[in-house]
């Protein structure tokens, strides 16, 4: 699957999606200032199947009806939070289909208490 990471997605997310062809805007040669509508058009014309972003507004601003790509919106772009939701991100990408949109809720997970060993 060809996946595009929006400018606001930590590049470390590539590690969760290693079996896919994952590119950043920079790797595609596109400006980080590209508008969302133009980004979707450019991504589609380049064969991108999933746009992964943490731009919460894009899901309300852009109509995906008839689109060839899917939209996966992450609830955060803060690396420690994103990293702790690796499996949820990967699952959302796997479920993506043309014209679909998914939101990956990302609440900060509480650290697990360590036993004192006594």
In short:
This protein is of the alpha/beta class and 118 residues long. It has 5 helices and 5 strands. It has one domain (2-104).
Q: What does this entry look like structurally?
A:
28% of the residues lie in helices and 18% in strands. The chain is an alpha/beta fold and 118 residues long. The chain has one domain. The chain has a 5-stranded parallel beta sheet. Strand 3, helix 3 (58-61) and strand 4 form a beta-alpha-beta unit. The longest helix is centred in the middle third of the chain and has 10 residues, at 36-45.
Topology:
Elements: E1 2-5, E2 21-24, H1 25-28, H2 36-45, E3 50-53, H3 58-61, E4 70-74, H4 79-83, H5 86-95, E5 101-104
Parallel strand pairs: 1-2, 1-3, 3-4, 4-5
Question: Widest sheet: strand order?
Answer: 2-1-3-4-5
Give the domain tally: 1
Gyration radius, in Å:
15 Å
Strand content: 15-25%
Category by helix and strand content: alpha/beta
Distance between the termini: 49 Å
- Helical run tally: 5
Strand count, sense and barrel status of the largest sheet are: 5 strands, parallel
Order of SSEs? EEHHEHEHHE
Approximate shape: globular
Mean pLDDT: 89
Kindly list the characteristics that best describe this protein.
118 residues, alpha/beta, five-stranded parallel sheet, 5 helices, 28% helix
